[in-house]
């Protein structure tokens, strides 16, 4: 894809971080290896000053935000929820543990996991040949646990993709082949641009997946099956976030089900990406240079009012607010995680 190296006369000045990080940004790549990623796309070798959000590489192999990440807290609640589901379905966690060593592998993995090389027809035969309350409870339990696992895995993806986004924004060359670039502001469409846009797209899609998974999980917790004379289907099988009016947590303050701009924006941008294409007719990354040094890189989001895209006629991609997604993404995801944490805590309370 050809690079557009036009110097664009936007009203952006030099990055507000310029003075803050001027000494670090003037270092060449050969001087010191950057170990911290900034929101404005210029990596640093020294820890940013207190109060500035940045990304560092943690022992688990993820570029993780310096503040606001609640992944571990959410994971801990989800682990407890796996046991709570077993306790409810088997009338006590002890009864479940007593039979755990005898559970057939196909009950745990078939139809759920690529480790089970079993077809649908063979699975159906196994279910019919082993039709008893214990097996049916186990099948149902692992179907319920899949809802919890969906939340765990989707959150892992969001955190990983966010880190990859800032790694790419900070460390990869936007223009190829690399060379001397003019000062000013210019925008670029390139393979790296496509990667950055794709990462943002998947983040919003996965955030919306979490809304669906949370709705399913709450609905299932409130409608747990009790008849195991046959293998029961999930009560939440066809439920999505649009069905949240049918759960008790709907409108609850602080959860994913409270009406707010954050949730509305998640829905609006996910729908834009899925149904209408991109959040820019010509996806691009802007780069600001001064004295030959990169001062800032950013991507713009279209204007929104109360979380909804502003529109006129058939047009809904306006950029009057010049909102830089890279400057707000970590706080957006942190707020989403905060609401998710309360949501899973409330769901665990329902199961307790």
What's a concise summary of this model?
This protein is mainly alpha-helical and 352 residues long.
* Largest beta-sheet characterization: 3 strands, antiparallel
Number of helices: 9
Helix/strand/pairing class, anyone? mainly alpha
What would the principal axes of the Cα set say about the shape? elongated
Strand content: 5-15%
Radius of gyration: 24 Å
Oligomer: single chain
How does this structure look, described?
A hairpin with a 2-residue loop joins strand 5 and strand 6. The protein is elongated, with a radius of gyration of 24 Å. It has helices spanning about 20-25, 70-90, 95-100, 105-110, 120-130, 135-170, 190-220, 260-275, 325-350, and strands at about 35-40, 55, 65, 185-190, 285-290, 295-300, 300, 305, 310, 325. Helix 7 packs parallel to helix 9 (about 325-350). It has 9 helices and 10 strands. By secondary structure, it is mainly alpha-helical. The longest helix has about 40 residues, at about 135-170.
Walk me through the topology:
Layout: H1 18-25, E1 36-38, E2 54-57, E3 63-65, H2 71-89, H3 93-99, H4 105-109, H5 120-129, H6 133-171, E4 184-188, H7 191-222, H8 261-276, E5 285-290, E6 293-298, E7 300-301, E8 304-305, E9 308-309, E10 323-324, H9 325-351
Helix pairs in contact: 2-3, 2-6, 2-9, 6-7, 7-8, 7-9
């Amino acid at each position: 894809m050809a690079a557009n190296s036009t110097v664009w006369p936007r009203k952006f000045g030099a990055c507000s971080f310029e003075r803050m990080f001027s000494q670090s940004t003037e270092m060449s790549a050969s001087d010191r290896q950057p170990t911290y990623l900034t929101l404005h796309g210029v990596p640093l070798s020294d820890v940013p000053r207190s109060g500035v959000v940045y990304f560092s590489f943690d022992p688990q192999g993820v570029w993780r935000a310096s503040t606001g990440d609640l992944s571990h807290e959410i994971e801990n609640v989800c682990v407890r929820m796996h046991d709570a589901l077993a306790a409810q379905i088997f009338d006590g966690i002890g009864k479940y543990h007593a039979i755990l060593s005898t559970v057939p592998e196909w009950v745990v993995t078939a139809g759920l996991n690529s480790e089970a090389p079993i077809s649908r027809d063979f699975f159906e035969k196994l279910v019919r040949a082993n039709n008893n309350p214990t097996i049916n409870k186990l099948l149902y339990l692992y179907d319920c646990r899949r809802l919890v696992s969906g939340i765990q895995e989707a959150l892992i993806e969001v955190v990983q993709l966010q880190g990859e986004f800032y790694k790419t924004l900070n460390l990869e060359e936007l223009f190829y082949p690399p060379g001397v670039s003019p000062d000013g502001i210019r925008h670029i469409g390139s393979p790296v641009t496509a990667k950055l846009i794709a990462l943002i797209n998947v983040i919003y899609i996965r955030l919306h997946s979490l809304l669906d998974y949370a709705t399913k999980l709450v609905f299932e917790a409130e409608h747990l099956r009790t008849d195991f004379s046959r293998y029961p289907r999930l009560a939440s099988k066809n439920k999505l976030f649009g069905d949240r009016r049918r759960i008790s947590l709907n409108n609850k303050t602080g959860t994913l089900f409270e009406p707010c701009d954050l949730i509305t924006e998640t829905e609006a941008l996910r729908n834009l990406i899925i149904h209408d294409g991109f959040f820019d007719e010509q996806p691009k990354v802007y780069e600001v240079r001064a004295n030959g040094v990169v001062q800032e890189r950013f991507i713009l989001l279209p204007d929104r009012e109360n979380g909804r895209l502003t529109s006129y006629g058939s047009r809904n991609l306006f950029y009057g607010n010049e909102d830089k997604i890279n400057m707000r993404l970590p706080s957006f995801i942190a707020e989403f995680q905060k609401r998710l944490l309360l949501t899973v805590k409330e769901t665990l309370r329902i199961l307790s």
